[in-house]
Amino acid sequence: MRVMGITTHDLRAPTSRTLAGSDAAHADPDYSAAYVVLTTDVDGLVGEGMTFTIGRGNDLCCRMIEALAVHVVGRDLDELTADMAGTWRAITSDSQLRWLGPEKGVVHLATAALVNAVWDLWAKSVGKPVWQLVCDLSPEELVACIDFRYLSDAMTPAQAVDMLRRNEPTKAARIAELRRDGYPAYITSAGWLGYPEDKVRALCREMRAEGWQSFKTKVGISVESDIRRIEVMREELGDDIQLMADANQVWDVPEAIDWIRQLPSGLRWIEEPTSPDDVLGHAEIRAAVRPVRVATGEHAANRVLFKQLLQADAIDYCQVDACRLGGLNEVLAVLLLAAHFGVPVCPHAGGIGLCEMVQHISVIDYVAVSASLEDRTTEYASHLHELFVHPAVARDGRYVVPDAPGYSMALHPWVFERYTWPGGSEWAG
Ligand SMILES: [Mg+2]
């Protein structure tokens, strides 16, 4: 099978009209997808992938995907997948485009869309969901999907293979367990920062009735309003429910420490307390705000930054993002690194399509990589799943293991008609 061409689609949902998704740094997001379809010479078989943005600039990601596509279009799928690390290296090492990153920003977001589409195509070609394709690889094959350049000072390919080998005999039992019980999750949808108090209360009650046991709220506008928000959620949810808080990068390091110490006790984690690039700042905050723990990663641009966060004991929770990193290859690298350092991976999701992708990532982490559910929970947000043909499903506060072949990225046809920017019916009217 050969990749014959690509099309890109600039899709934007007008979420800023309801303030769904709003936080201290992003007051009016329009949740968007720079979406790519790889066409093939096999009738009906396409690879679908995307990266997530929050509106303006989504078009730049689409143009960049088209620029990078030269590394995929015209090549046989077998050739691309026989050396996935090499395929990834070719895309991220484009001798001119890499200047725009390297491995960060628009060029890396676009890499994610393209790489995720290749994984989707590979999984569909063998009739498996992506998590199963990865979990069925041998330890050597899985490690061969990862570019270890810049990682070997922290973890060698041989160490990674050893770790994966230890989990081999018990994989089937963990798959059966996840199919029976689902994967533990938490929900963010009650705590968007733009929501008034009565809406937060109503959503907390509704989500608790749906079986959610773990919640997150946005913070960071004022200490007083954050204390109030946390107290309101505690009143509605009780003390037995886990509660996390997310500052979305708004604080300076000393400010973060001072602010977090003023918040009501019992928070499980503070998320993105400062700049996503500030490894040592995270380490300082982490040491100062115990017993609140520190989570970050949704804006960590690449595996090198995760390596440093782990080497510096800067985080308690590793929040990989399916699209911020350069697609599933690099996510696998971070899963291995986190397991090597003994830090739980709690993927970032929400957005468009992120829940659909991270459900695969968490299954891979448990079945093949960390073999642990201890202290793990994967983000879930309840909006925009209706766009997908095979949407992520949460039941009783847990993700249901996906079964459809591919990376769960197929969209209904109406999505293109409605959300294409600027000509779709949602925008043109
Ligand atoms: Mg966050």
Protein described:
The protein has 429 residues and is of the alpha/beta class. 41% of the residues lie in helices and 14% in strands. A 5-stranded parallel β-sheet has the order 5-6-7-8-9, covered by helices on one side. It has a 4-stranded mixed β-sheet with strand order 10-4-12-11, covered by helices on one side. A 3-stranded antiparallel β-sheet has the order 1-2-3. The longest helix is centred in the first third of the chain and has 21 residues, at 105-125. The protein is globular. The mean pLDDT is 97. The structure holds magnesium ion (MG). Residues 246, 248, 271-272, 298, 348 line the site of magnesium ion.
CATH topology tier name of the largest domain: TIM Barrel
Total number of helices: 17
Small-molecule components bound: magnesium ion
Strand order of the largest sheet: 5-6-7-8-9
* CATH structural architecture of the largest domain: Alpha-Beta Barrel
End-to-end CA span: 41 Å
Would you report the number of β strands?
12
User: Helicity range of the residues?
Assistant: 40-55%
CATH homologous superfamily identity of the largest domain: Enolase-like C-terminal domain
Secondary-structure element pattern, one letter each:
EEEHHHHHHHHEHEHEHEHEHEHHEEEHH
Largest sheet: 5 strands, parallel
Which stretches are low in confidence, meaning pLDDT under 50 for 5 or more residues running?
A: none
Apparent shape:
globular
How much of the sequence lies in strands comes to: 5-15%
Helix vs. strand class: alpha/beta
